[in-house]
Amino acid sequence: MRVAVMSDIHGFSLALETVIADLERQGPLDAVVVAGDLCEVGPAPAEVLDLLRSRSEPCTVLQGNTDRDLVQVATEGWGRGSVRFALDQIGDEGVAYLAGLAFSHRITPPGGGSPADDLLVVHANPRNLDDKLDPAMSDRELREILGDVRAAAIAFGHIHIAYTRRVGDTLLADVSAVGNPKDGDLRCKYGLFTWDAANRSWDVELRRLDYPLDATAAQIRSCALPDPEQTLAKLLRASY
């Protein structure tokens, strides 16, 4: 069984197209899961939603913290900067789509038992959309956030830093970001998970793809994003 997990597109549609093209080269895949943060920051939030919803092979899409926040802002009727831009672009239909996204998704492999053999996909962690599973944390600190969740592997994004690590019997895999990585490596990233039936474990390859930078820069400068040069500078910095 092979499962692709991507996260944190953040309105960068050309980066998403780059990942989708690689998915087609890597196929066939049993499932594709998108771990949230779809729209806010980049120049093409509506195009991102269109790409995800129009795939000939449907993918499971989860909610991230910025997706939740966009829904809240739309409900309250305010918003400025890139938040306002994203809301104006996706409209009421897009907001409704974000509001309806699930928090998590479990995949039980063939011959595996749930929950012990599952691949669990979340945005930030298995309990909420905000607390970070930071690679600098100790095992104890990570366990405090993970709680009593059971899974063979947990895939997530949120902090845009690609890493893998084992905490007890569980593989943690931050698949970083499709749209705006923050680990000093300006490449589009996602995770390709493979179930090893013989060893009853999940393996992961963190895929790194050349970023469509020139085309994205032109897209940023030609859209109605406020302060497009700042958006581009943050993208180029690829760090916090």
How would you characterize the overall build of this protein?
With 240 residues, the protein is an alpha/beta fold. It has a domain at 2-104 and 175-237: Metallo-dependent phosphatases (Purple Acid Phosphatase, chain A, domain 2). 34% of the residues lie in helices and 22% in strands. The protein contains seven helices and ten strands. It has helices at 13-26, 45-53, 65-76, 81-99, 139-146, 213-222, 228-237; strands at residues 2-6, 31-34, 60-61, 104-107, 119-122, 153-156, 163-167, 170-174, 187-196, 201-210. It has a five-stranded mixed β-sheet. Strands 4-5-6-8-7 form a five-stranded mixed β-sheet, with helices on one face. Helix 3 packs across helix 4. The longest helix is centred in the middle third of the chain and has 19 residues, at 81-99. The termini are far apart. The mean pLDDT is 96.
| Strand order, largest beta sheet | 3-2-1-9-10
Structural class: alpha/beta
Corresponding CATH architecture of one domain: 4-Layer Sandwich
Please state the overall shape, judged from the principal axes of the Cα atoms. Answer: globular
